[in-house]
Design a protein that fits this description.
The protein contains 27 helices and 28 strands. The chain is α/β, with parallel strands linked by helices. The structure holds ligand MGD (2 copies), iron/sulfur cluster (SF4) and molybdenum atom. One of its GO terms (molecular function) is molybdopterin cofactor binding.
Length: 786
């Protein structure tokens, strides 16, 4: 590989100290000199870096950052620089597979699709389309989600459609809706260029959004650097740069946030005029947080009162603030309630809608925003409200179908419930696309059992043979990034186009083509007998999508394929009023909460009970933001005598999820070849464990065996990266989700991957043959380097 730096060792590259305008630095990694470059964006995290794909002789041979892109100004991180090699990997799926006599065999597209259609029709005949469920991704393209969303809602009429975004950033959407009336990030990455303070809440940004972290590192190296507050139980790379690092016990985010808000309010560090003019609910919020003096917070969370005070002083006095929130909140106890407290912090201080003031209820996956926008998850397209009949009618008009065709008698089924219905037998066909639940869902023994059920017909659409496709009845080979054209939207609403650079391998087809093929074979029509799906190309789908967004918060009507091509990505809303897109939402302090406009009528943050349309109309905030408090609820499972330790799980800088892409890059694989269990020095001594010892971690649901990594974490807490499953190593149980719990947040329905009670023990030197891998881990991961 020829690269502008060795990003495995030098993760973030050279500093460009600045304040104001982030300088350009073009990062690149190629295996050969490309004969041409094709415009794209990276699909290995939600940061959405603008990149070009290098092509030679019809093959991808490298990538480089786009210097004109407002997201990255040319920069790339290790995953982006190396992950592309997976496209060329020899073990790509190239033909459909069908299960026959218990074994998968190759089949033609006609045979595979006809089988899916035949099964669909049989199920519909017996039990209506309620027997069919879809479990999709945060990694397909906008045009694919919209097509799938229309098929599910107006073709089949099933409410059972959701994505792995439920595991990922359902809480982001829920928190934004709860405070501001609709999804959509208020801020812009450009806020980092001038802000005085950054807060990372349950977000290891240094590892997980490496390029955004470069922007912060460059600010830290420049004039008037921002203060950095980090709330994370582990001493992550991010925490190492913190002005103040609060390390709460897992599941205690609410006490910490209530404590911070209490100190800020009692010190008088609030913007009363903003609160009065633009919010509702301050008194109730104040009442709840008053119960949380620092000493009480310390008792529950372990965060020293003095440190909490220091953080409150910084957050209470800063003149601008950028906050990021991610899985340490979204996948932990009281997820939505805790994420909402960040919105509250910005609202009570009036730090929103202007330069330097951004809230990023972060996304994780590159296209998660589009799953939510397009209605391929449990939302209606373009942030419409399923319990507002007029919104549903708008969609019926747009798609030219009867209102009753679109399921809106109850909330769309969330993923955890879809899996439950499959388990219970009422869902008979589950179509999985672009996700690997046999590694990424909680409580894997249960997921494997469901996937293997005799009476569940499983379709899995992927580029590789995975732990999930292994169990499918039909496997469809998917074309992926670089092999198809489409758009996607990153955290700060920047929309990028990714052009097709090369042909997919063998007979692999894009998800877009597969979904349209299904629709045609099923004969889905509108009410005049015309084809329901009226588009044949991604560009036509994009044009249809634009119409769907007209007048909604995520207005794309001012964009086009040609406008997105040639320069930078563009931030929505982009329409007549904002032809070049918009950096900020809510600049005028008017939020999307009006009863006829909002995406939700809201929920009780503690119980998840829905507010009805009548109740909402009675209190219509009509443009004011909600301040919503919440009191502490203890985690559903906590350490006890039998399982005395907290488990938490997460990520490493070098791998993306179940490693289907990053595990196929030699550089990334060798940088982090195996999983591990991170424990504190205190626990290592207590259990007589040395670095690299194989240890067993057991919960009530399963067990894994992993080498020990000591340090960088508090006593009583165990951390396991969740990347490692079985496609490349079946020797021992090692997937973190063997241990995790089937529980979810009351409001967002996002599962709780961030805590469970476990016990650990030494395995007594078995499995020595992977000693070499352990040596590499010891070398690569010094304590704290996570
Ligand atoms: N390298 C890499 N980057 C990625 C990904 C990847 O797989 N690899 N995936 C992408 C995706 S889809 C996502 S969703 C994001 C996720 O990005 P992050 O949310 O940053 O990743 P995690 O490691 O899951 O969790 C973040 C932190 O939460 C902390 N944590 C655990 N429990 C608690 C708690 O109770 N409270 C608090 N405050 N913190 C807690 C953990 O110690 C961890 O450091 O990353 C994206 N970027
Ligand atoms: N314990 C624990 N579990 C977790 C988490 C955690 O922090 N801890 N995090 C959760 C989060 S935030 C996430 S996002 C999930 C991620 O979990 P998954 O979604 O299961 O992870 P991926 O490995 O990204 O799976 C994506 C699959 O899609 C395939 N793919 C890629 N591109 C395309 C395409 O264009 N078309 C098709 N059809 N397939 C494609 C890839 O080969 C891969 O198999 O894991 C969740 N699970
Ligand atoms: S920060 Fe995310 S989007 Fe940017 S290069 Fe890295 S993985 Fe890709
Ligand atoms: Mo995610």
């Amino acid at each position: 590989m020829q690269a502008s730096r060795d990003s495995i060792i030098d993760i973030w590259g050279e500093r460009s100290p600045y304040r104001g305008e982030w300088p350009v630095r073009v990062d690149q990694c190629t295996s050969e000199e490309p004969d041409h470059w094709v415009q794209s964006a990276c699909v290995l995290c939600s940061n959405g870096c603008g990149i070009d794909i290098g092509v030679k002789n019809g093959r991808i041979v490298g990538v480089r950052g786009r210097k004109e892109d407002i997201v990255n100004f040319g920069r790339m991180g290790p995953k982006g620089l190396h992950g592309w090699v997976a496209n060329n990997s020899k073990d790509r799926l190239t033909k459909p597979l069908i299960r026959e006599n218990g074994k998968l065999r190759e089949a033609g597209w006609d045979e595979a699709m006809n089988l899916i259609v035949q099964r669909s029709k049989e199920i519909i005949e017996k039990q209506t389309s309620l027997g069919i469920g879809f479990y999709t991704s945060g990694q397909l393209f906008l045009e694919e989600y919209y097509t799938l969303g229309v098929i599910g809602k107006a073709g089949l009429g099933t409410p059972h459609m959701d994505g792995n975004t439920r595991l990922c950033t359902a809480t982001s959407a829920a928190a934004l809706k709860a405070s501001f009336g609709s999804d959509g990030q208020p801020g812009s990455y450009s806020d980092i260029d001038t802000t005085d303070c950054v807060l990372h809440f349950g977000h290891n940004i240094a590892s997980q959004q490496t390029v955004l972290w470069m922007r912060i590192l460059d600010r830290l190296a420049g004039p008037n650097p921002p203060k950095v507050v980090v709330i994370d139980p582990r001493e992550t790379y991010t925490a190492q740069k913190a002005t103040v690092h609060l390390a709460p016990k897992p599941g205690t985010n609410i006490p910490v946030m209530n404590g911070l808000l209490h100190l800020i309010i009692t010190a008088g560090h609030i913007n009363r005029a903003y609160i009065d003019a633009h919010t509702v609910g301050f008194e109730e919020l104040e009442k709840i947080v008053t119960e949380w003096p620092p000493e009480r917070v310390e008792k529950l969370s372990g965060v020293p009162a003095a440190k909490l005070r220091e953080a409150a002083r910084i957050l209470g006095t800063t003149r601008s603030l950028v906050s990021t929130v991610l899985q340490g909140v979204y996948q932990s106890m009281q997820a939505t309630a805790a994420a909402v407290q960040i919105n509250n912090l910005h609202l009570v201080r009036g730090l929103i809608g202007s330069d330097g003031c951004g809230i990023y209820q972060m996304n994780g996956q590159p296209t998660a925003q589009n799953t939510r926008e397009c209605g391929a998850d449990g939302d209606l397209p373009a942030f419409r409200n399923w319990s507002n009949k007029e919104h549903v009618q708008q969609l019926a008009g747009l798609w030219n179908v009867e209102l009753h065709k679109i399921p809106h008698w109850s909330p769309p089924t969330h993923a955890m419930q879809i899996w439950r219905f499959a388990e219970a037998g009422s869902i008979k066909m589950l179509w999985i696309s672009g996700t690997n639940p046999a590694v990424s869902m909680p409580e894997l023994s249960r997921i494997r059992e469901i996937l293997q059920k005799e009476d569940l017909f499983v379709v899995a659409q992927d580029a590789f043979m995975t732990e999930t496709t292994k169990f499918a009845d039909v496997v469809l080979p998917a074309a992926i990034w670089g092999e198809k054209t489409g758009c996607y939207t990153n955290v700060d609403r920047t929309v990028h186009i990714s052009h097709k650079a090369v042909e997919p391998p063998g007979e692999a087809r894009s998800d877009f083509d597969i979904f349209i093929d299904y629709s045609r074979r099923m004969g889905f029509k509108d009410k005049d007998g015309a084809d329901l799906i009226k588009w044949n190309t991604p560009e036509e789908a994009f044009e249809a999508w634009k119409e769907c967004t007209r007048g909604r918060p995520c207005d794309y009507t001012g964009m086009s394929y040609s406008k997105l091509t040639g320069g930078s990505g563009i931030q929505w809303p982009c329409n007549e009023k904002f032809p070049e897109g918009s950096h900020h939402l809510y600049t005028d302090g008017v939020f999307n909460t009006a009863a006829d406009y909002c995406e939700t009528y809201g929920h009780d943050l503690d119980t998840g009970a829905a507010v009805t349309q009548e109740e909402y109309k009675a209190i219509d905030p009509n443009g004011k933001a909600f301040l919503k408090g919440s009191d502490y609820i203890p985690p559903h499972e906590a350490p006890d005598e039998e399982y005395p330790l907290w488990l938490t799980t997460g990520r490493l800088v070098y791998h993306f999820h179940t490693r289907t892409k990053t595990g196929r890059s030699k550089e990334l694989h060798e940088a982090a070849p195996d999983g591990y269990v991170q424990i504190s020095e205190e626990d290592a001594a207590k259990y007589n464990i040395a670095e690299g010892d194989m240890i067993e971690v057991a919960s009530r649901r399963g067990k894994i065996v992993e080498p020990a990594k000591i340090g960088g974490i508090g006593p009583g807490i165990v951390f396991v990266p969740f990347h490692y499953g079985y496609w490349d190593n079946e020797e021992r149980p090692r997937a973190a989700n063997e241990l995790t719990i089937t529980e979810w947040d009351a409001v967002s329905k996002q599962p709780h991957f961030k805590y469970a009670a476990v016990k650990i023990s030494k395995t007594g030197g078995i499995l020595d043959k992977i000693g070499e891998a352990i040596e590499t881990i010891k070398e690569k991961f010094k304590p704290g380097e996570t």
